[in-house]
# Entry
Amino acid sequence: MCGISGFAYRDPDRPVNQNLLRAMSESIRHRGPDGEGFYPGPGAGLGFRRLSIIDLDTGDQPIANENGSIILVCNGEIYNFIKLRSELISKGHFFKTKSDAEVILHLYEDFEVDCLHHLRGMFAFALWDSNKRRLFLARDRLGIKPLFYSIGKDGTLYFASEQKSILSANSTGRDVDPRAFHDLFTFGFALTPRTFFRRIQQVPPGHYLLYKDGQASVKQYWDLSFPEKDFRKHYSEDFWSEALLDKLKEVVRIHMRSDVPVGAWLSGGIDSSAIVSLMREVTQNPIQTFSLAFENQPDYDEVSNQKTLDQFPGFEAPNERVVFKKEHFDLFFKTLWHDENPTTSATRLARMALSKASGRQFKVVLTGEGSDEIFGGYPWYGVDKVCRPFSVLPVSVRKFMLLGPIFPKIKPWSSHVFLAPRPMNLNRFSFLIGTFGKENIMNDLFADDFQEQVAGESDGYSNLTAFPRFDGWHNFEKIQYMETKTRLVDMIIHGLDRASMAYSLEVRVPFLDHELVELCAQIPPSLKMKCLTEKYILRKAMKARLPLEILKRKKRGLAAPYSPWLKDNLPDPFRQMLSRESLKEKGYFNQSAV
# Structure
């Protein structure tokens, strides 16, 4: 786990600006405080910040192949590196380190860009092929590790783990992308590849970028897919639960590979409890865990008023309760600096506090994030299941069924979904997960001049539902696909990476192992949500490994108690930030509406 940055020139013989290379790396020191490394070759410069987890003695980067013609910097973990290393040695490759990243170099020598199909892990890397004069950027299949890039006015390509590193080059401009604001108040986040800077983009999950002679091309190497024909009915619940448990045990085992101690984040739900239970089986020892709670606000967290796994007989283990208090608002500006892409998530500051506490004792923790996406565990799956049959009716009839304003006041979100358009696309998806009444927000909240800019931009969303077999999938799976391609990467994983790396902490997400994700894509929707029981097949798979009380719990999502806190006077920095003078100076928002 580290931070990477660098650039490649249009002219392959141009000498590298080493001061710039170091400045870009320094801006993301928090991602790797244990060391740094640089490759300042002709035509390209690569920078690396190290958080030492695998191969503590010889795992420094950049790493070169045997003859020095190929240079690599990599952020992340390759979980199948032991197997790959053995195979590559048998083919005659020589290894200088025991690190997981070095296998990428030798795979590239054998397969070039197709090396990506052999990797299992979370990663974002940059590889400079000096013979071809070509830069190769790649991001893991689910987008667990971030990777940004920008092409300057002179044709130079800049890349980094965080946008601030690219901005430090002062070569790409800081113009705002109005489409990102539209995304924010439609979905709650900016959609990949967008960022809030017009000239900075993300390499999408499951994609790679090739840059040579001033030209860049982005190509896809992996995508999530579901079966078209329902062959799955020939397999029993027991078959799927046993297959799921076997894969989960293997995934947790390889995710625990580390040369430093590994802890875990634990809530009261089944996801993190399943991970911690399986970690105990791997180590045969109790696991140090960390849980998040809110001071005087038990209705908002996942651990108050219910026992966590460490409190059940037979599962006793050390657990640290991290209590988030109103005073932690002091973390707001630090959080924003690390986060870069604002979202409507209410848990950013709380994750920072949890990461800070965990980072004092560990460099690596495992978490249950990703389970809700691969099993369809969020509330909107059930709400869509109930509301969708009514979507064939005219909107006027549906409004009448809601008894005018009565049901919208009692159940605002469900009523919002009840009125959503029928086709399962990003428009309906925005009704499921996005901002209520977004049309009015768009009209009222943006300043007039900025609203015109937002309206004049193409949304560019159609490609997300252009998968060749999308129309043949079950509606449940269509939501899963859009969830994985948007909210998972742009809100859930993004926030997880930034909060943890702010405190030099590596968070691993076993549920997002791509082999497990592909297996779960084959499980019938009727076993993911049986009637309205979410994650039914996971509960069945973990039946013998978790207390019955946890197995029967309904999902209780994490939400920060900003509403009750903000009933008091706003702290001065927020009051100034939202003042008429400040809003007028920025020019984005209607001062009266704010």
